[in-house]
Amino acid sequence: MPESYPRLAVKFDLEDLKLDPSAQIVIESRYKDSVQRFPWGTVARPEPQVLPLMREVPPDQRVFFRVKVVEPTSHRLLALARRLSPVDQNGGEGGRGELFRVRCVALGQELWRVVIDEDGAPILELNADVPDVRSRFHEPGFRVAILPAAMRTVLLALREEDVDQEDDPDSWAQRWFRFAEDLASDERPDPREPEAMRDWIDRACSGFAKRFSLMSEMVAAAERGSEP
Amino acid sequence: MSASVRRLNDRGREAFRAWLEDGATGTPPLALLDDPTMSDPLRLVIRRPQAPFESRYDLGVALVDLLDGLDVAEVQTDAGLWDWLSLCLIDHLCPPDETGRRKPGQIDRYLLQLENHRTRYRHLVRTVWSLVRVHDSAPRFMLAGPLHVHGEAAEQLGAYQDVITCKPLIAAIGSLVWDVERGRLKRGFGGSGPGSARRVQVVAKQFGLTYDLHSMRPEQVLELLPREFDRFREAPPPPDRRPRLAVRRHRREGRPEASTT
Description:
- The complex is a heterodimer.
- Chain A has helices at residues 133-136, 140-161, 172-184, 194-211, 214-226; strands spanning 24-31, 34-42, 64-70, 77-84, 101-105, 112-116, 122-127.
- Mean pLDDT of chain A is 83; it is low at 163-167.
- In chain A, strands 2-1-3-4 form a 4-stranded antiparallel β-sheet, with no helix packed on it.
- In chain A, strand 6 and strand 7 form a beta hairpin.
- Chain A is built from 5 helices and 7 strands, in the order βββββββααααα.
- By secondary structure, chain B is mainly alpha-helical.
- Chain B has helices at 10-21, 56-66, 72-76, 79-88, 90-93, 126-135, 152-158, 161-164, 167-177, 197-207, 218-224, 242-253; strands at residues 6-8, 39-41, 178-179, 184-185.
- Chain B is globular and about 55 Å long.
- The A-B interface holds A 1-2, 5, 24, 26, 28, 30, 32-35, 37, 55-58, 61, 68, 70, 74-77, 106, 108, 115, 117-118, 123 and B 10, 14, 71-74, 76-77, 114-117, 120-121, 130, 161, 164-165, 209-216, 220, 246.
């Protein structure tokens, strides 16, 4: 058994919403196909009613939250916040500001792979069998070989998967598309125009490699490595 | 052969995959189950499930009991464990016909693709454990068939996190569509028309914008369901039930309503 489960602590600022003080608060942690609910008192007294341990979430895994404010008799939702990301104990973003999550998993004979999870979050998986793979991922040779191709994979997947059904401007897909628009110096084409879309994705990936000088850094590193 | 549950390692999973991808011909690679180069022991000694099981529900009950001592967070994400159990039960999950031929379905039914939310709920072993663990006997209506049949109800409801994790909703639907006397699903729920399993996720999504379904009692969820589900009810509902008024109020307010289109 794990010695400690992730423990949930929440700060509320509900004043502007003018909610009924007796309305109940519930927090839901969502991880893959598991949902844990934590009754969190009322608007007047928001405090956990049970020990807020996330027993169904493995350590170091990304979890999203919903906060619901519920009228207790009718069970109507008075307020709802979705797709909330936690911050860590030091106030870190917990990953919401990033474009990729990176994790190390068994990948057999493949070095890397991109998957899109159910929240639309792109995850770059690295082969855990490579010694010290997280550190090596920052080496210029790794970066130039993986990042533009991974970016292309993400954009193609997001284009095809229509993961942005919730019309959330802060969704992973929308943030990726804004990032790519900036890199391609062009607006995202109509998804029904596959050729234009593919061209736009190519320009975005190329722009990415250019902005971070990926090839120049790799060549420089190779030259340093070949020096006596 | 050991009597304990183990977990396939990456090599073991690859070997199992290769057998499935080759059409599951010949003898299943049951040697993987105990081969120390292909599988690892669990931290606890867990007795192997003793097939046969009359239904998927019975397997789920047995697994919840057997795996009770393990940490839920670890168990639900341990693909090696679930794939080991798949292989262990392969004669029931992918049974040979009278000529000895097997007809394997999609590979996700036997090999857990944890990161793929579109298919992971189809794993024939993990899903029954997960449903019984979360909902107890309520999902019996989804798990009444033999071990190798995923079933339309499990397919339609399992695909949506908001639906399949909602205890009052699953309990309500179960009480509505499960024919207790005959021990089977009522006719019409498995299709695609009004009142079908496909419609449950649409209706639940709409009501989920207005209600916290998780905090309701199953009877309250039942009262919310639109008339298309009335054909499953034992007795006609009272004409002036409040939730119907609630739905009408949504219409006036321009909120989402339950439609049958």
